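In response to reviewer comment 3 from the previous cycle, which asked for concrete evidence that the modeling workflow produces usable outputs, we include below a single protein chain processed end to end. The sequence was submitted unchanged, and the resulting structure tokens are shown without manual editing.
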Amino acid sequence: MVGRASARHFSFGGRAEVRNVREALFPNIKHMLTEGDYEPVSTGEERWWNATCWERSELVKEGLLRDDSPRGFWELSEKGISFAQEEIRK
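The workflow returned the following structure tokens.
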């Protein structure tokens, strides 16, 4: 799933506003979500989105997303761009 999400992110030019990431991701994963995934967590966000944001942190640690993007933007790193290009070729 990360590969497809990265490839989609790449289609934004490697950088996208968080709201655009959410809008692009949701239709691709909604068939996998359960009722519980729509429940709000302590921040008020739906559980699935909160988990997605935690996954973003992991992608930053793995070097696939940049850690210095402006607030409100998710941006592929050079490593992330290479990964997305490989996924597109598959």
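The two ends are 13 Å apart (CA to CA). We consider this sufficient to address the reviewer's concern, and the full set will be provided in the supplementary archive.
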